[in-house]
Predict the structure.
Amino acid sequence: MDAVLFLIFAFIAVVSAVSLVVQTHPISSALSLIGVMISLAVLYLLLGAEFLASAQMIVYAGAIMVLFIFVIMLLNAGAEPKQKSKAKLAKWIGIPLFAIFIALMSYIIQSMLPKTAGVQFGAFTGGAAQEVGRSLFTQYLLPFEVTSILILIALIGAIVLARKEI
Amino acid sequence: MPPLPESVPLSWYLLLSAVLFALGVAGFLFRKNIITVFMSIELMLNAVNLTFVAFSYKFAAVDGQIFSFFVMVVAAAEAAVGLGIILTVYKNKSTLQIDEINSMKN
């Protein structure tokens, strides 16, 4: 059952990522990216990261992608113009090279990792909000506070950039 | 067709993450629309997050998930600033094609 779920959602993620790269209209790319994020959230659940899965759905697929789609709509971004003929050669060479790259990478990953038991749903339950929160507010308290300053700076930067007279 | 394994090995998760990252790099390099380039960066960040969570499972420690959480927060800040920059560029140049935004050239 784990393998079936992994294969289904990994397939959705890869197809959506390819669709993100090949679509010409930015709205289609944004919707494909939402597909990638939702399938990754399911994979996080399979790995036992419950809190992160919900944060992925709410923060990434919710807030950040709404911001993207808002900007695409605001700028009225249309489809890209067609590529020139130079891109055709790149396509014929690039796709086989990409396949070779993936095959090589899979061989390296397979040979680097020691053979252990597979990923079993429910084997690791340390990803609930309780454990994440305890770790976040004890061991990682300083990075957490620094993050708030980062967010404040980003907020000020976004306001400055959105002023009229730049 | 060989029968499906009962549970998938960890390397499949890492491989999926590598494939998503490579697709993000391809989109970053080949696309001309600045918003699509920005979305490719988000795809790469997501791929790295998957690796963090997979290793968090492997070592049965929550630290990888904390790193992934911080990546998510930084991505949110980056999206806010980046989209502000895109809005400003569009206001000044009236284009979203990155090969037409070349005022730093020469």
